[in-house]
Task: structure prediction
Amino acid sequence: MDNSNRHSFDLVVIGAGSGGYAAGRTARDLGASVAFVDRGPLGGLCILRGCMPSKTLIATGDAAYEIRHAGELGVHAGEPAIDFPAVMARKREIIGGFADYRIAGIDTFPVFSGEARFESPHRLRVGDDVLEAKSFVIGTGSTVAPAAIPGLAEAGFIDSDAALELAEPPRSLVVLGGGYVGTELTQFYARIGVPATILIRSGHLLSGEDTDVGEGLTHYFREEGIAVEAHAAVQRVSVRDDGMKVVHYLQDGVEKTATAHEIFYALGRVPNVAGLNLEAAGVEFHNVLGITVDETMRTSQSHIFAVGDVTGRFLLVHIAIQQGEVAARNAIHAAHEEIDYRLSKTHTVFTDPQVAIVGDSEKELQRAGVAYLAASTPFNDHGKAIAIGKTKGFVKMMASPIDGRILGCAILGPDASDLIHEMIVAMHYRATVFDFMRIPHLHPTMAEILTYPAEELAEKITSSRPLAIAQ
Ligand SMILES: Cc1cc2nc3c(=O)[nH]c(=O)nc-3n(C[C@H](O)[C@H](O)[C@H](O)COP(=O)(O)OP(=O)(O)OC[C@H]3O[C@@H](n4cnc5c(N)ncnc54)[C@H](O)[C@@H]3O)c2cc1C
Result:
């Protein structure tokens, strides 16, 4: 006899993280009956082990850096003392508050706690409960990629989850990976006094970004004492008799080693698909690349949607949220609204200097064969930046040589994650560099710097007919 408890909903959302929660809320606002399934802990990656704890720690690293460099402004404060337990206690308290708030929101829905497992395309089992629904949204997120380097598991290492929870800082670090997780957390630890070496396969940090952005950040990391070893192919890990961990790598054909008390493994994430029994649901997926979705967030089963990290694309909160909203509207209205990645793929990295990108990069424009002009202005040529002593980096704008439409913008610089929003708004309204120059900018402000590449591009476009294509 089957003792399962049966339930029926318009929509069942698996995973109450950023993407899933957005889907559930949107569907309920549209009048649908919605339930969540989550194996816990509730709160989602962003709040519990992602964006928010990392930014909370980074604020401490940045404060230490500012104090060390205040002498340049005539303020002599000496070497700051780091109270690491206090830093972690502050983080725990802040994250606890955010998580409580989110959990209170989730608890306004029916919530089934446990691992979700499809039994058929319309039926999901969670322990003794069987949930049937017209539609499903899968938002089960991602997990740290398994470490496949010989000797690493035996030597022991920390991943981003552990790096956010340490009881005391490591005495020194070798970091494997130069993406946003590796760079942000390494700079935090370096700024509170941990010597760090980052090993990267590519030529610069943030290998996916334009070379000037990635090389710029690499330069500033090295300048503040973080060693970055580029073109390093990690071979294996060993442990010395004194307990030090040794990473063996090949660089330009030469065998080298990097030695530290701890290894921070920051080589990416994989989608959480294990255990969902997606085969029974008829949903196509790949263990590393994630669940296949179209631009309406539908999987290969038209009533099953997937959003956020589990789709393997972008791994950013604002995108997970947007995908969740689109999926919910499509599920409840049987609609075919497509997500618009033109602006959604905007992203930022909270290093110092920060990186923020909107629209297409030069690499993307070149790959797509799109004609463009580019102009950039360094912060060390900008009055306000010089006045406040924040001169690292540059702003770069790309525009169409035909009509001056802004195609993309990259900022490597102070508060880039905030400055970029002016460009997001401009691009939302499909502004040209000519429009942009007519928008008043206060003086002296950091935002004013964006007018300089716009002016340069406008001049190039008006003075270089017939049209030029930037190299
Ligand atoms: C260190 C770090 C820093 C980051 N910083 C930023 C940042 O600054 N900005 C940014 O935009 N992004 C950042 N990210 C990425 C961001 O956190 C993720 O992209 C986002 O949180 C993913 O949301 P999600 O809804 O896809 O999944 P999640 O928030 O991970 O939610 C997945 C949910 O599914 C549940 N679940 C999983 N499997 C099952 C199952 N089988 N059954 C039932 N429930 C299940 C989990 O319990 C969880 O609640 C960061 C990530 C890391 C690791």
User: Anything to note?
Assistant: Residues 467-471 have pLDDT under 50 and may be disordered.
